[in-house]
Amino acid sequence: MTAVEHSPTWSIDRIAGAPAPAVLGEIRRLAGAAAEADGNPPLSEQTLVTLRAQDAGDRLLVFTARTPGPQESDLAGVAVITRGAEDGAVLELVVGPDCRGEGAGTALIEAVLAEGISDLRGWSHGNHSAAADLATRFGFEPVRELWRMRLTRAAVEESVPELRLPAGVVLRTFVRGQDEDAWLAANAAAFAHHPEQGATTRADLEARMDEDWFDADGFLLAVRQQDGSLLGFHWTKIHAGAGSHPAMGEVYVVGVTPEAQGMGLGKALTIAGIEHLHAKGLQAIMLYVDADNTAAVALYRKLGFTRWDVDVMYAGKTARPTL
Question: What is the pLDDT of residues 225-276, one digit of tens each?
């Protein structure tokens, strides 16, 4: 950990690689408080996975903001830069609800800018006005929109048709210790055009299966009845309720292998996952979809999903960091 030059208000520390367990705990608590206040998780799931990875190495760079003093103060804000094999360096930043408007975000951004990372972009989850203002102030523009769409329980009953699987296809649930390799291959094939999802590794998969929310019964596989080969999948997720926010289901990831395209399997898998989540008694189901994926957006709208919120990725004209 290295101290970075800072304003009199904030002490900025630079951490290369995975933070110490105590700092990681602070980051998770800060992210939880921000999610409760804003209604949006400020750090992506992949970022949280990478923060725990002891072999993260140069894939991870963290800046923390605290008030200066002889004793370490509580964490006020954090900026996390993760680097993937395909999607470059991505910044996510969060300031604690009680510390906003005091310059912590600016101090963190200035520390990030000092790194001179040429390919860095940044996510604003929920695109709150403070994040948009900060992006504008540092000369960054939106380059991608990731919609969050929501399906209410009433809309499930009115809009979601009966499940009809293609001929020769059956559904079963994921079996841990048996299906990992087949799923990784199917996922890579289904998302060859989408590096964020298609580059999922065995370690990424294991990390998610170790999470408290993982439920193999909600990890649905579509297999060819004749030989059991994997054609597609719908991995669902349930977000536990917190504070005033009730539990919510998620269409976590739906994928269909190239050989099974055109069979209507994607729609069938989506309906199967919705039925599974509906049976859990959840009042709402959400999903993420790129705004420019018109085919997927049209399908989800036909199923009763409506646009609920948006995450925005920013980039500068000189590819400087954002958020």
Answer: 999 999 999 999 999 876 667 889 999 999 999 999 999 999 999 999 999 9
Instruction: Give the CATH number for residue 130.
Output: 3.40.630.30
Please, are residues 71 and 280 in contact by the beta-carbon 8 Å criterion?
A: no
The answer to whether residue 153 is domain-embedded is no
Whether residue 154 lies inside any domain: the answer is: no
> What's the total number of domains in the chain?
2
The residues, any chain, with a CB within 8 Å of residue 270's CB and separated by 6 or more, are 234, 251, 254, 299, 300, 303
Pair 77, 65: CB distance under 8 Å: yes
> For the chain, what is the mean pLDDT?
89
236 Rama sector, left if φ>0, alpha if ψ -120 to 50, beta otherwise: beta
The reported pTM is: 0.81
- State which residues form the domain around 235: 161-303
Residues 222 and 290 in one domain: yes
19 plus 133 within the same structural domain: yes
